[in-house]
Amino acid sequence: MKKFIFIISLITSNIAFSAAPDVEFCSTSDLAFSTDDCISSCTALQENGISLDVGNYGFCVGQGTYTSGTIYKVALGTDDSSEPSCTVYENSSGLEVIKSANLPGVEIDLGSGASCAANNYEVLYVTYGAIETFAGETTIPSASGGTLRTTSTFASDTIDSDASYTTWLDQGASNSAAGSHNFSTNSKIYSRPHSGWNTIYKKLGNTPMAAADFTASSNARMEFDWAKEIYINYTNTTGRDGWVCEEESWGDGINACARIPEDGKYEERYHYSVDGIEGLPLDVTADDVINFNVSYISTNENRTDLDDGDDARELGLKVLFGNFSGTTKAIGVYPGESGGYLTFSKTTPSNTLD
Questions:
Q1: What is the DSSP string of 294-308?
Q2: What is the pLDDT of residue 10?
Q3: Domain span at residue 250?
Q4: How many CB atoms lie within 10 A of CB 37?
Q5: According to the model, what pLDDT value does residue 282 have?
Q6: Which of 26, 142, 289, 293 could staple 16 via S-S, CB 3.0–4.6 A?
């Protein structure tokens, strides 16, 4: 699961730039639970009378009111190696990116650029902090509605690099219906309906929560451990030495891989062929300087580029619901649809005559 959208821009100035990526919301006719080609907000589903059938699970997107993650390193490499060969940006203390703080397109100044050896770079490496802190809210997509908020019940997290996800993941039997599993094992703070789902959600309560169960007046900040996602999304352990990668059958195979370089960090490796990466391969000569900037799909609630501030157009919080015997209940959340936007520029000095 890619946390960022990657754009490599080739420009001939000393100024790197970032443009906010497009956000595609579902039209009224395309609104549904669990859409991948467009974003169905939970509020839009409720406003249009779209709800889950009894026994079904589904996700939709709510409004993130706070999202903060950390970037430690960005590097480039070649396809014939499993390790990066040029570090574009590195910060041992970590660069905090608060996606809810600014409007889209606002750049984060990362200082001067880096020099890379002449090469044709085909692979992008990004190292993040494993924990992302987030908060949010939305409308419960049912006939009666109600406000869902992130909760404090399982808000905190611990760095857990245990590949045996049975110790922290609460899930139902294969292809089980909503209502057949109550997600009540409190020692397991992550959830998914069953093994057919490749996304995990931080649990909101001791059991799935109906509208009446959300009594808080504010959105609690919760922590999400992205390192745990590795054991759900990256299951190919033999394709690339030292990494776990996506399966060929449903993902990008050895072109999309991840690993845990050390406790508290999470690293992704992406070949230029992976969807969402544009501008690679990047042909670098000995005199080129590589600059790097960060923007993101902002979750700022004051942004006006989503159809004039329409409340039904939400970003930053993905919510898992189930219809339990006729009642829509929320199971878990994670900081979804708020990915970063990395922009590179290659500066080639002009040749001038004295």
A1: EEE----TT--TTTT
A2: 47
A3: 4-347
A4: 7
A5: 86
A6: 293
Of 316, 133, 319, the C-alpha closest to 222 is: 133
Cis, bond preceding 281 (omega within 30 deg of 0): yes
* Number of domains the chain is built from: 1
In a domain, 354, yes or no: no
Q: Is 207 exposed, middle or buried (0-12, 13-18, 19+ CB in 10 A)?
A: middle
Q: Compute CA 257 distance to the chain's CA centroid, rounded to the nearest angstrom.
A: 15
Q: Is residue 353 part of a domain?
A: no
Q: How confident is the model at residue 16 (pLDDT cuts 50, 70, 90)?
A: very low
- The separation between the first and the last C-alpha atoms of the chain, rounded to the nearest angstrom, is 52
Please write the tens of the pLDDT for every residue from 235-273.
888 889 999 998 887 677 889 999 999 888 999 999 988
Please state, in angstroms and rounded to a whole number, the distance separating the CA atoms of residues 210 and 121: 50
Helix (H) / strand (E) element for 114: namely strand 114-115
**Phi, psi angles (nearest 5°) of residue 94:** 90, 140
Judged against a pLDDT cut of 90, whether residue 148 lies above it is answered with: yes
Question: Tens digits of per-residue pLDDT, 63-122?
Answer: 988 888 888 998 999 999 999 999 988 999 988 877 666 555 555 656 567 888 999 999
C-alpha span between 177 and 79 (Å, rounded): 43
Extract the tokens encoding 277.
């990466």
Alpha-carbon dihedral angle through residues 322, 135, 251, 275, given to the nearest 10 degrees:
130
Rounded CA separation 210/254 (Å): 41
Residue 55 domain-assigned?
yes
Report how far apart, in Å, the C-alpha atoms of 317 and of each of 30, 62, 134, 299 are: 20, 5, 8, 9
Q: Considering Cα of 164, then 167, then 168, then 173, what sign does the dihedral take?
A: positive
The pLDDT assigned to 354 comes to 43
> Is 36 contained in some domain?
yes
Q: In 3D, which of 282, 344, 351 has the Cα closest to residue 113?
A: 344
